[in-house]
User: Which sequence fits this backbone?
């Protein structure tokens, strides 16, 4: 019998099935700026209505949170995570997401699983008025074991040049406002999986995996609600490295984010992880978001306005003169 691509472990038909399952839903994310359909060699997106547009891009994956999803056979939230990790990053510069592309790699493709992951991306794109305009599904036997998947995304957004947020206008006296996370988001899961090896154990009345797989919060709508009303000096997405590593990225020299940790609302699952793993609190703040998914820095006179616009936001500190960049008390 002659060799075929399928005999080497790659099933092209399963790839075609994946496209068939997702093409209608993906098309629903498109708008008048998308100039071609799924299946072209390249994706086209026209830009209109901007004075001096700047494109802002970001790429990311979901890390070993995928392992929780695969072991629990619950795939719908992973696509949301992938989109959120990219879109939340570009949001830090005031960008509106325009379009998104995905990359899905596996050992043996299952069109049902692949479609479920992509449908999560579709949902997230729709919620953020963003077009899913392309992607790649790679079946790589020998590189990945059957049942293993990896996923990554790439988001491009847009902002007027004179409206770019980069933290350069942050000054002493500005207030630091926290936007709550929805849980661990997509960071720190190598440690989470070490401390919580049984995803099916009961936690607060339901299987633990349900809590762990709550998708990463999307901040486009609340942040742009603020941007329409208030001048924002800086925004930080609290991802891997927690507050300790991410907040300093937007703080100018000789200034410091002085954060009162007693004000932070830490999720119970993180407190349980800390207790069960005997993890030092500093390690927790340097690994997880600790309940703060994003921080916004605004002039003190605007703080009350932001808190009024966002029901669940709360103040956690202020900018002081100090070369330390960040101090947690």
Assistant:
């Amino acid at each position: 019998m002659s060799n075929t691509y399928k005999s080497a472990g790659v099933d092209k038909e399963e790839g075609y099935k994946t496209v068939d399952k997702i093409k209608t839903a993906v098309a629903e994310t498109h708008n008048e700026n998308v100039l071609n359909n799924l299946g072209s060699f390249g994706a086209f997106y026209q830009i209109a209505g901007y004075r001096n547009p700047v494109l802002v891009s970001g790429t990311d994956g979901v890390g070993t949170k995928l392992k929780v999803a695969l072991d629990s056979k619950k795939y719908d939230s992973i696509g949301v995570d992938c989109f959120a990790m990219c879109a939340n990053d570009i949001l830090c510069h005031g960008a509106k997401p325009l379009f998104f592309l995905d990359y899905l790699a596996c050992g043996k493709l299952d069109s049902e699983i692949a479609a479920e992951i992509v449908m999560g991306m579709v949902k997230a794109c729709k919620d953020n008025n963003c077009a899913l305009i392309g992607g790649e599904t790679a079946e790589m036997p020998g590189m990945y074991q059957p049942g293993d998947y990896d996923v990554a995304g790439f988001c491009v957004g847009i902002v007027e040049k004179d409206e770019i947020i980069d933290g350069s206008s942050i000054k002493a006296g500005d207030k630091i406002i926290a936007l709550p996370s929805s849980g661990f988001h997509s960071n720190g899961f190598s440690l989470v999986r070490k401390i919580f090896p049984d995803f099916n154990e009961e936690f607060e009345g339901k299987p633990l995996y349900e809590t762990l797989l709550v998708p990463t919060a999307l901040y486009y709508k609340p942040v742009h609600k603020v941007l329409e009303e208030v001048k924002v000096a800086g925004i930080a997405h609290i991802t891997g490295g927690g507050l300790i590593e991410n907040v300093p990225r937007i703080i100018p020299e000789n200034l410091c984010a002085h954060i009162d940790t007693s004000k932070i609302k830490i999720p119970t699952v993180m407190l349980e992880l800390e207790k069960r793993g005997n993890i030092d609190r500093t390690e927790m703040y340097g690994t997880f978001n600790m309940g703060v998914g994003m921080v916004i820095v605004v002039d003190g006179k605007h703080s009350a306005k932001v808190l009024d616009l966002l029901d669940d936001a709360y103040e956690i500190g202020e900018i002081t003169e100090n070369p330390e960049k960040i101090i947690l008390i």
